[in-house]
Every structure is written in structure tokens, then in C-alpha cells.
């Protein structure tokens, strides 16, 4: 099949940065929205898709007409959701980062559940130039699925607020991709 461009854009800075914000619906800053709009300015996409959380949705809607897809949400951090990392038991947090399937946050989502829903979201994409405004965890899940990165290796990617990861995706039963650019 013919490849298509897929651009993954992490939402801009939220009003409460540096927190474990999975389902926490924190607003973005105006500067965070502006940074995302600037990243998307010359992409030439035919479709914009966004997580339903306002920190992603506000930027996507500022870019253009948007399809909302909650499968692009961040990992649900359960009881840790909305907390700063130093407010979480450090041993539990280390266990989570080492193996987020075996040690998910209490009442939270495991890594494989995030991967499964992002996989469904990828499968639903039309093979046209697309921008997805999402979250760091969902972007890492997409890189795992499309590029074959092991889960532990994904933490090596710095995905700051407003980062754009551009991919060339080959659709099919098992889609694959090549990273063509990372723009902080």
C-alpha cells in the first residue's frame, strides 16, 4: 500500500505542568496552544484528530476542523492522576517505569491497555496526511506499534510539550512506519 504522512503532536504546556496527568482534564496555556499551532502550520494535512482531553483538543481545534477520538488519551494514572511525581511513593513509581504492565498505578491503566486502544485508533485512521494531537504516553504507544520500539526504550525519547514527531506510515494488517522528523 501507499504510505501516508502521520504527524504526532504532543499537546502544549498545560496550566499544571510536570504532573502525572492521564485522565486529569487540565487546560492548556495560551502559549501552549500557540506552540502547537506553529508546529502544524506547514504540514499540509487533510485530517486533524485529537484526544478528547482539553489540553490536546484546544490546540487541535485551533489548528483546524478536528475529529475527537478518546482512544488517543494519555495513560490513566489512577490514584496518581494529577499528582506531581514527588507526591507518589518513589519505589512504586520506579516499579511502574520499569514495567508498567506488571506494576500499573493503583486503580490505573496498564501499558498493554494503552497500546491496545492506540492500536485501534491507528487502525481507524484513513491513509491520508493526518495530524494527531495527543499525549506523551499515547505517542510512545504509537511508536511502539508502528516502529517496533520496545517499551523500555521508549522512555529514552524526550517528548516535551509541543513536540512534533513525523512518520511515514505503511498501512495494512500490521502497519509500520519510519520516523522522518522530530521537531521540539
From TrEMBL:
<protein>
    <submittedName>
        <fullName>Alpha-ribazole phosphatase</fullName>
        <ecNumber>3.1.3.73</ecNumber>
    </submittedName>
</protein>
<dbReference type="GO" id="GO:0043755">
    <property type="term" value="F:alpha-ribazole phosphatase activity"/>
</dbReference>
<dbReference type="InterPro" id="IPR050275">
    <property type="entry name" value="PGM_Phosphatase"/>
</dbReference>
<keyword id="KW-0378">Hydrolase</keyword>
<dbReference type="Pfam" id="PF00300">
    <property type="entry name" value="His_Phos_1"/>
</dbReference>
<dbReference type="InterPro" id="IPR029033">
    <property type="entry name" value="His_PPase_superfam"/>
</dbReference>
<dbReference type="InterPro" id="IPR013078">
    <property type="entry name" value="His_Pase_superF_clade-1"/>
</dbReference>
<dbReference type="GO" id="GO:0005737">
    <property type="term" value="C:cytoplasm"/>
</dbReference>
Amino acid at each position: 500500500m501507499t504510505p501516508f504522512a502521520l504527524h504526532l503532536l504532543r499537546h502544549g504546556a498545560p496550566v499544571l505542568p510536570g504532573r502525572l496527568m492521564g485522565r486529569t482534564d487540565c487546560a492548556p496555556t495560551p502559549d501552549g496552544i500557540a506552540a502547537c499551532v506553529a508546529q502544524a502550520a506547514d504540514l499540509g494535512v487533510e485530517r486533524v484528530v485529537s484526544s478528547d482531553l482539553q489540553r490536546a483538543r484546544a490546540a487541535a481545534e485551533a489548528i483546524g476542523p478536528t475529529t475527537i477520538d478518546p482512544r488517543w488519551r494519555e495513560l490513566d494514572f489512577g490514584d496518581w492522576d494529577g499528582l506531581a511525581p514527588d507526591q507518589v511513593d518513589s519505589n512504586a513509581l520506579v516499579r511502574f517505569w520499569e514495567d508498567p504492565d506488571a506494576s500499573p498505578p493503583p486503580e490505573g491503566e496498564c501499558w498493554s491497555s494503552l497500546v491496545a486502544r492506540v492500536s485501534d485508533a491507528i487502525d481507524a485512521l484513513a491513509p491520508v496526511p493526518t495530524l494527531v494531537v495527543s499525549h506523551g504516553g499515547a505517542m510512545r504507544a504509537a511508536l511502539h506499534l508502528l516502529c517496533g520500539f520496545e517499551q523500555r526504550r521508549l522512555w529514552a525519547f524526550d517528548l516535551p510539550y509541543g513536540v512534533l514527531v513525523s512518520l511515514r506510515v505503511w498501512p495494512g494488517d500490521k502497519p509500520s512506519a519510519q520516523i522522518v522528523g522530530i521537531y521540539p
